[in-house]
Amino acid sequence: MKEIAIVFSIYIAGELFVTGLESDFPGSVVGMLLLLGLLHLGWIKVDYIRMVSSVLLAYMPLFFIPAGVSVMTTYTLMDGFYWQIILITVFSTLIVMSVTALSVQYLVHREKS
Amino acid sequence: MMQMWTHTPLFGLLLTVVIGILGLMIKKRVAWNLFNPMLFSMLIIILILLGLDIPYAEYKLGGDYVMKMLGPITVVLAVPLYQHHEKLKKHAFAIIFGIILGSLSALVSVYLFSLMAGLDMTLVKSLLPRSVTTPIGIAASEMIDGLVGLTVLSIVITGTFGAIVSDWVYRLLKVEDPIAKGVALGTSAHAIGTGRAFEYGTLEGAMSGLSIAIAGVSTLLWLWLFQMIGVI
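Structure tokens for the assembled complex are given below, as produced in the milestone run.
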């Protein structure tokens, strides 16, 4: 229970932060950065939230299902663009992988020498 | 009788949990690495709804409760990142700079390809967050008014394809550095890529794992900036 309370409080703090700024930036990601900061400061130890974080991460795919199912109401908007969508996804993935791999490899080598 | 109880949130909630756990159980049993439990469960639920003629709106009553958990899930993504942060220290600049550049290349390439293919703006916005981990991708899609269903599907295609082609890409481009291999898999193919990265080695896997959250934040900040200057 205490673990759940910690994670939810941080999440709510993140949501309140973006609401306060009247921003549509996701509060959940602000909460993630907040938790990262608190772990670094040592104010929260991984042990305090070990159970809840491992359960949430293990069952993570389950929580994406409703978002996926929503495609049944919006698929008509993709009509005639199925192949384009797949090709864009595939080619863009190749680009991201290449750009990231080559730039990291170049910079790591430079840092080493 | 059937009609009655599908009107309550309990229906969507139970359906998601039961079929979701079934998907995760199958994932554990099958040797096929690319089996995607989310995709499996999602398709089964769509078939059930269509087969029993139950409107999506009734499923959504309970589905929305499940979606509310995406917030706390995103928060705990900080845990694996924190646990690997020692490995980040030595080449922090190279790794973070590579991820920032990689996530920018994702957005620019999707945007340009989409314009070339003649996609309308709603579809473009749905595809823009496709390279990041699903909970952050859904949040990003909501932020820029994309269709979350399409975002989730394109995220699955991205991860699966990235995991399949990484070997071929690395050989072609002569990428041999384990840090570069791991970071590129995590940045381009999120958790599915990380599964592949662990097959290369534990260093590759750890690098891929820590890249997921960094790539998510980086993508979100780029999108936020693009929205600010009015590009999307």
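Chain B has two domains: 2-68, 78-228. Chain B touches chain A through 109 residues (CB under 8 Å). Further analysis is deferred to the final report.
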